[in-house]
């Protein structure tokens, strides 16, 4: 019933050209009404969720989430970023860089976990931001996430065919051919990559449980490969490589480039942890969210951190840091020692890329499903199939779209691993968890919390700019220290002056607001380490998302509200529902 009402509601603005032009003339008023409008946890768990028709089945346990988290994170990134970060920045201290990056990922994971336990729906960051900062902020971040998912999945699938070819000793030219009519970069046709994407699309459409089983099998094989890689490195490596470079003229010691090198290395390898956020989109399909989600999300990040540190130690033992291959560190490290090991690396990397692709495709479909529930995209995407209990429409559409891009677009995996949109969402979720703890609409004023978040982000941005662009010298440490002192002072004043408006009933981020604030700072720092083209892409896709919102989404959302399907008849209802969250509606206790 909800789906039918939402689809009919869109006819008032889109039924005729005259109706649409009239709606465009009312855009400013509709933006003012809909863009800042917030939903509530109760709405997301009841009326909004019901728009999908059938429910998603709760079949996943904590070990499924751990497997999905590991599969989503351990992909091609670790095989690429490790060599570059070690050779150019951290040296043997790349092990410490991975530990620091793992801590950063764990802090962001805590923020995701608090929301996912409190509101176990499939929307992930989109839903969290929608109940905190409103519809427009949620749509902007959700659109960027889906765009990056699709583009990076297309690139990863083409990269997978390259790794498979290397593992089998077959050149990719065997299944790729050139169409001279198409422009360069779009003329190399790869038939295997879209086939892989379509097969995985069928798997995730069929059943989430079966998808988890497939992921668990592939992830287990990948972990066995990583264990083999670590043991071979420890066996064939030399402990002296931790402190002695290949060229005596290069800096020596475990920290050849000092603390700055370690943190710059952490900023680079942090991209290898991206993927755990997709686990939060599975919250609606978890049997016991209160128990399983914290273990699944945090446990996967901790396990991956240990694996990454051991892999980095293994690589550092095999070769001095100044002899590590920047592009393919592990393959190059073993190339002269064992052809079998080099071949196994290709097979293992293929398993890793396949699991990360599977988890990312699961995540992107659930994001699109919940965005469809909110009526800012056609409600057709929100449909959950009654037999498979999966978002078939969203899965099929995004799978076909991804396969089409993978067919002819020669995307560079490295560029797509630099997920500026994902880091931006991590930053937004860290802000949202603080805002939600300290602000309750109708009870507390938002300005103290908003002022703190803006000042803290500004201080973090200044620190990042000084770190990256100020030349070495005496002023630099002073400026960095001043930024740290100011940030801590702002945080301490906020902590002492502003009381928390609500306490989480089940699970919450500890040491509030310190840990989320550290997460904000680290995400700003990591955003500052990305290159210019990343910001150009982010700006382009953000502008495109704003255009879609202004020309379509705000009008569809407004029509749905008028028809009553949004469940927001006035601001007072929203305020009352947000206050009632303290009592925790029974539908959340699953």
TrEMBL record:
InterPro entries, A to Z: AA/rel_permease1 (IPR002293), CAT_C (IPR029485)
Alphabetical keyword list: Membrane, Transmembrane, Transmembrane helix
Keyword S-adenosyl-L-methionine: no
Membrane topology, as annotated: Multi-pass membrane protein
Transmembrane feature ranges: 62-82, 88-113, 125-146, 189-206, 213-235, 255-276, 297-320, 340-363, 390-408, 414-435, 447-466, 478-498, 505-528, 534-552
Species assigned in the record: Gossypium barbadense
Homology family: Belongs to the amino acid-polyamine-organocation (APC) superfamily. Cationic amino acid transporter (CAT) (TC 2.A.3.3) family.
KW Transmembrane helix (keyword) present: yes
Cationic amino acid transporter C-terminal domain segment(s): 507-557
UniProt name for this protein: Cationic amino acid transporter C-terminal domain-containing protein
GO cellular component: plasma membrane
Alphabetized PANTHER family for the sequence: CATIONIC AMINO ACID TRANSPORTER 7, CHLOROPLASTIC, INNER MEMBRANE TRANSPORTER YGJI-RELATED
Pfam families on file: AA_permease_2, AA_permease_C
An example molecular function term from Gene Ontology annotations: amino acid transmembrane transporter activity
Localisation per UniProt entry: Membrane
């Amino acid at each position: 019933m909800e789906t039918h009402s939402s689809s009919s509601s869109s006819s008032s603005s889109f039924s005729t050209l005259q109706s649409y032009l009239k709606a465009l003339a009312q855009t400013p008023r509709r933006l003012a009404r809909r863009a800042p409008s917030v939903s509530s946890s109760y709405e997301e768990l009841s009326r909004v969720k019901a728009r999908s028709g059938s429910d998603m089945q709760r079949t996943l346990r904590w070990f499924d989430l751990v497997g999905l988290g590991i599969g989503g994170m351990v992909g091609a990134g670790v095989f690429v970023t490790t060599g570059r970060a070690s050779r150019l920045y951290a040296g043997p201290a790349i092990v410490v860089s991975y530990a620091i990056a793992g801590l950063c990922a764990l802090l962001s994971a805590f923020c995701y976990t608090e929301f996912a336990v409190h509101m176990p729906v499939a929307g992930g960051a989109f839903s969290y931001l929608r109940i905190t900062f409103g519809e427009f902020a949620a749509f902007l971040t959700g659109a960027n996430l889906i765009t990056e998912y699709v583009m990076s999945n297309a690139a990863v699938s083409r990269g997978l065919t390259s790794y498979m070819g290397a593992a089998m000793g077959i050149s990719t030219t065997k299944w790729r051919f050139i169409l001279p009519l198409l422009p360069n970069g779009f003329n190399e046709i790869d038939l295997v990559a879209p086939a892989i994407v379509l097969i995985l699309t069928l798997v995730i459409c069929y059943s989430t449980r079966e998808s988890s089983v497939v992921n668990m099998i592939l992830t287990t094989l990948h972990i066995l490969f990583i264990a083999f890689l670590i043991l071979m490195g420890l066996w064939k490596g030399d402990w002296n490589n931790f402190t002695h470079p290949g060229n005596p003229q290069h800096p020596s010691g475990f920290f050849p480039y000092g603390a700055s090198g370690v943190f710059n290395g952490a900023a680079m390898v942090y991209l290898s942890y991206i993927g755990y956020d997709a686990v939060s989109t599975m919250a609606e399909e978890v049997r016991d969210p209160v128990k399983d989600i914290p273990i699944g999300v945090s446990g996967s990040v901790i396990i991956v951190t240990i694996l990454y540190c051991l892999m980095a130690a293994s690589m550092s033992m095999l070769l001095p840091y100044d002899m590590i291959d920047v592009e393919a560190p592990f393959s190059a490290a073993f190339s002269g020692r064992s052809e079998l090991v080099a071949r196994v690396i290709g097979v293992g990397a293929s398993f890793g890329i396949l699991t990360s692709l599977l988890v990312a495709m699961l995540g992107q479909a659930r994001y699109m499903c919940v965005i469809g529930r909110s009526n800012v995209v056609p409600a057709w995407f929100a449909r959950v199939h009654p037999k498979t209990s999966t978002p078939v429409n969203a899965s099929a559409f995004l799978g076909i779209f991804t396969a089409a891009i993978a067919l002819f677009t020669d995307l560079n995996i490295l560029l797509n691993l630099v997920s500026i949109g994902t880091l931006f969402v991590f930053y937004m979720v860290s802000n949202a968890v603080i805002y939600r703890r300290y602000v309750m609409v109708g009870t507390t004023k938002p300005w103290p919390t908003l002022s703190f978040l803006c000042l803290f982000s500004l201080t973090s941005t200044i620190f990042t700019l000084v770190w990256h662009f100020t030349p070495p010298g005496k002023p630099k440490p002073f400026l960095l220290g001043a930024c740290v002192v100011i940030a801590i002072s702002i945080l301490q004043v906020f902590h002492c002056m502003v009381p928390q408006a609500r306490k989480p009933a089940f699970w919450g981020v500890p040491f509030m607001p310190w840990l989320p604030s550290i997460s904000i700072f680290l995400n700003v720092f990591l955003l500052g380490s990305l290159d210019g083209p990343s910001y150009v892409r982010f700006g382009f896709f953000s502008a495109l998302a704003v255009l879609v919102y202004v020309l379509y989404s705000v009008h569809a959302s407004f029509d749905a509200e008028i028809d009553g399907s949004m469940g927001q008849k006035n601001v007072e209802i929203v305020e009352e529902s947000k206050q009632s969250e303290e009592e925790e509606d029974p539908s959340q206790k699953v």
